[in-house]
Amino acid sequence: WRDSDNHERLSGQNGFMLTRTPDHLFDKGFISFGDDGRLLYAPRVNRAALAKMNVPEEDTNVGRFSPKQVEFLRYHRKSVFKKAVAA
Q1: What DSSP string runs through 17-52?
Q2: 5-63 residue pLDDT tens
Q3: Chain-centre distance of CA 20, in angstroms?
């Protein structure tokens, strides 16, 4: 969201509700979501720590996203999620 222009920030499709911990992990690039709604973990994420934080297991399906949400998620996977992978 922080990298969005004003038009994108105002889009109701740019964002979804997450509880505090998953929201932080998403913002830092440790988790993301596939186009099909699957929860994705960055390869270097500490899976045991995520389990202790009650983050659902990888590949948990959270449901469908709209085509516009998928666009925003693709940006996230390319620009945010990958940074956590390379770190």
Answers
A1: ---HHHHHHHHTTSEEE-TTSBEEE-TTS-HHHHHH
A2: 656 655 656 777 888 999 899 989 999 999 999 999 999 899 999 999 999 999 999 99
A3: 13
